């Protein structure tokens, strides 16, 4: 039996041949996947807080650095650009080096660069650091969702991944509470300095969470194929591997369009909604912060409910309901808001707004086999994110020539496109992430 050139290989090729088949689902012990969930949840909580820091400090940054609306919007766009690059790198690196290793590295990387933003003294310094720091945000989102999709049983997957995404929302909520207290009293810099804390999480995860078995088995099977072919191993471009298969290639393109529209709408709204409440509607900062807290709490509730329903009724129906519902309700907020009803509108909006990201990760990870999942999901999601780079800029431009509300209507159109494509073309549960396919 020839030697199998593979990293992280604990079994001989005989053992792999006898005990591992790509058609078998590999069950992860409950204790392990719950531990992994806790770390992934805390990681996305930090991710959500990081994104929230920029949106909530935007007014302070405009004052500090004398920014125009377009310059302020550019900071959001640079964050998305960095996140897209990081997601592409992170998706590929997950397939190459392992899901857990990439999470551990990028937690530390992102924490250090985000905390350094508090020491910047010019717009250019802030913009450059933000771009590089945001690479960690994109990589972590992809890696955490892939890790959990491969560890959690199919019957619970939507519920668990939806609950995982509440970490993102809880991070935004935490950022709102921190900003509401810190910015008025201590200024925006202190808000960024506390971002160094997640480094501790990185160290602990390194020792507490193993790589998923399906990823390790898929690598072993691939190495066995190479060994049996008696040909030297050549590293193929993962995207060529995806596109040369018609089914995978079509799915890849459909998800690029859908996630591009989703992120265009989501990041446009998340970057500018606090400013819309504060500037266009004249709500005071602390009151606005409490409105956002209520919205985030409802979003968390909506994500858990959406996950449970998606495990029962299917991913496609719930995803379409959330995206199209959000698209239809944004114009209601813009045209029908009053001082007496805006709170209730924000709460209902939070319910709809929370659903798409609760389902998106499960829906996408089940659309591709294990061997290409990291590259396919990371690629589709982050190539789509390139479109979202223009959403904060779009609202920033429209705010100078009209109102932030006008820009939010453009985001509504994006949400509608995002929901219609999967509804028509993408089926549920095409692959099981627990299989070494």
UniProtKB/TrEMBL annotation:
UniProt xrefs under InterPro entries: MFS, MFS_dom, MFS_trans_sf, Sugar_transporter_CS
MF-aspect GO terms: carboxylic acid transmembrane transporter activity
Q: Where in the cell is it found?
A: Membrane
Chain ranges of the Major facilitator superfamily (MFS) profile domain? 36-430
- Which keywords annotate this record? Membrane, Transmembrane, Transmembrane helix
**What PANTHER family is this protein classified in?**
CARBOXYLIC ACID TRANSPORTER PROTEIN HOMOLOG
Name of the protein in question: MFS transporter
UniProt organism field: Acinetobacter pittii (Acinetobacter genomosp. 3)
- Which gene is annotated as encoding this protein in its UniProt record? dcaK
């Amino acid at each position: 039996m020839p030697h199998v050139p593979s990293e992280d290989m604990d079994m001989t090729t005989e053992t792999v041949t006898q005990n591992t088949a790509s058609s078998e689902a590999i069950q992860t012990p409950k204790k392990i996947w719950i531990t992994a969930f806790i770390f992934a949840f805390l990681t996305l909580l930090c991710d959500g807080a990081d994104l929230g820091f920029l949106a909530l400090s935007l007014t302070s940054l405009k004052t500090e650095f004398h920014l125009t609306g377009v310059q302020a919007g550019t900071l959001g766009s640079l964050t998305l650009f960095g996140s897209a690059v990081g997601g592409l790198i992170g998706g590929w690196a997950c397939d190459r080096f392992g899901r857990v290793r990439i999470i551990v590295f990028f937690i530390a990387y992102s924490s250090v660069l985000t905390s350094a933003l508090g020491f910047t003294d010019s717009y250019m310094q802030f913009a450059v650091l933000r771009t590089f720091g945001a690479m960690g945000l994109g990589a972590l989102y992809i890696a955490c969702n892939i890790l959990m999709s491969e560890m959690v049983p199919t019957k619970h997957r939507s519920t668990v991944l939806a609950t995982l995404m509440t970490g993102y929302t809880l991070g935004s909520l935490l950022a709102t509470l921190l900003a509401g207290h810190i910015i008025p009293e201590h200024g925006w810099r202190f808000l960024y300095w506390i971002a160094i804390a997640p480094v501790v999480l990185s160290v602990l995860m390194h020792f507490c969470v193993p790589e998923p078995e399906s990823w390790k088995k898929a690598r072993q099977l691939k190495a066995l194929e190479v060994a049996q072919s008696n040909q030297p191993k050549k590293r193929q471009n993962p995207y060529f591997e995806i596109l040369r298969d018609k089914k995978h290639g079509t799915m890849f393109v459909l998800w690029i369009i859908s996630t591009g529209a989703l992120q265009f709408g989501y990041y446009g709204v998340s970057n500018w909604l606090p400013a819309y409440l504060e500037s266009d509607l004249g709500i005071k900062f602390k009151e606005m912060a409490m409105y956002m807290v209520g919205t985030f709490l409802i979003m968390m509730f909506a994500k858990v409910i959406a996950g449970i329903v998606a495990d029962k009724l299917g991913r496609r129906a719930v995803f379409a309901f959330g995206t199209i519902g959000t698209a239809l309700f944004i114009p209601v907020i813009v045209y029908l808001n009053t001082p007496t009803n805006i709170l209730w509108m924000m709460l209902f909006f939070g319910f709809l707004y929370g659903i798409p990201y609760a389902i998106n990760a499960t829906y996408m990870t089940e659309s591709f086999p294990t061997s290409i999942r990291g590259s396919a999901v990371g690629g589709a999601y982050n190539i789509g994110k390139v479109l979202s780079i223009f959403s904060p800029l779009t609202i920033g431009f429209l705010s100078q020539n009209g109102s932030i509300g006008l820009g939010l209507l453009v985001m509504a159109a994006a949400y509608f496109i995002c929901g219609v494509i999967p509804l028509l073309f993408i089926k549920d549960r095409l692959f099981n992430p627990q299989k070494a396919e």
